[in-house]
Amino acid sequence: MNDKLNIQETQRRIRKVGGYHLLLFLLPILSVLYYGWLKSAELNTRPDNPHRIAPLNQRGKILDRSGTPLATVLEGERAYPAGECTGSLVGYELRGRNQTGLEAALQGEISPPLPAVTLTQALIQDREVSAGKRSQLQGPDIRLTIDLKIQQQLFQALSPFPGAIALADPQGDIIAAVSSPSFDPNKVRENWQALRSDPKSPFIERVGSGFYPVLRPDGSPLLTQQESKNHTWFSKDPFPNYPLASEAAWIEGRLFITPLMLLESAFQTVDRVPRQGLSLRQERKPVSSQRSVPPSLQEPADSASESLRYWRLQGPPFRNSPSFLAVIGETSERYCFAIVVEVDSSQAQAQLVDKILPALELVGRTQQVSETGRGR
After folding, report:
1. What is the pLDDT of residue 308?
2. DSSP string, 2-43
């Protein structure tokens, strides 16, 4: 009798274990059927679905204002002809790695249309492409307001020191957005660990995302915490025309702003606020007319010559952050600029800024002559 009960108990346990194994076997199959069939339409349209983003060789180009490619496709691979001088701005995209810069911010715009909703439609499209009946989907190109030649000149003036330079024409189009240190997007794969662990953070695009506790020349904050609530360029969407822009931050009672915000402050200081806001794209997006203007500086400029007019803003270090010097102003051709240099010595800060200022003035004159020639 006991032997019979033991056999029945053993069989019951075997059936129970077998049921568990059958369930474990069926779970992946059921998951594939559920997500691949019932939920496929919803998943195809989710912005965080990596398959929604086309392979890099199907993305459109990122171009400068004259049509020179900053990101393109060569021999089926994503390539960045401008290299290091636009690395932090344009960024990179590697499967299984972080995405940065415009490659990440504009990925939905430069990728081709979404894939087919159902598996059957996708297979039909693949067969048509293989048979030559359907052309391979390709994303649209995007043209920036950046002038690559000017970007290269200013990058050389600042590099290898950490900092940022932003230059805009009288209409508010950003001609250069220099961030240093930078990196060569073509070599991210082999230099990944070194770039990732670099304490100078080359992946950070400093013009729109670098935070600095800038003060007025007299040491007072540009705005009080209460006043800052009335300015739209402090908001979560401060510059719709600059995809990499960050909002301002208050940390331990100190205001942290970006060089992009300093550039808009320069426009207000010289009484020329751009009507549609600062732009990095030649195809402007609508901007609310309710944008509030940043504060102007009433103190005399460091230089009021015919060549340059600029203000040096204080920048005491915060915690373990490096010392820096911020400068805003305009050239004789009415190009506004913002400079931030991260150098410990005040003497070295002044020397570096004095090296950059003539380069900015020369750029403004060259650009003005170039635009006049095109107009004729």
Report:
1. 84
2. HHHHHHHHHHHHHHHHHHHHHHHHHHHHHHHHIIIIISHHHH
Confidence band for 240, pLDDT divided at 50, 70 and 90: confident
H helix count then E strand count, the chain: 12, 12
Phi-psi region of 159 (alpha: psi -120 to 50; beta: other; left: phi over 0): beta
Question: Which domain does 13 fall in, by range?
Answer: 2-32
User: For position 97, which CATH number holds?
Assistant: 3.90.1310.10
How far is it, in rounded angstroms, from Cα 46 to Cα 49? 6
Phi, psi of 300 (to 5 degrees): -60, 145
State the pTM of this model.
0.78
pLDDT band at 369 (very low <50, low <70, confident <90, very high): very low
Q: Which residue, among 309, 215, 300, 207, has the nearest Cα to 259 in the 3D structure?
A: 207
What percentage of the chain has pLDDT greater than the value 90? 27
Q: Taking the alpha carbons of 365, 366, 368, 369 in that order, is the dihedral positive or negative?
A: positive
Residues 8-37, mean pLDDT to the nearest whole number? 72
| Residue 263 and residue 338 in contact, taking contact as beta carbons nearer than 8 Å | yes
For residue 61 the two structure tokens come to 């180009």
The answer to whether residues 72 and 187 belong to one domain is no
Q: How far is CA 216 from CA 75, 131, 300, in A?
A: 51, 66, 12
Q: Measuring CA to CA, which residue among 80, 96, 97 is closest to residue 88?
A: 80
Query: 296 burial class (0-12, 13-18, 19+ CB within 10 angstroms)?
Result: middle
> Which CATH number covers residue 241?
3.40.710.10
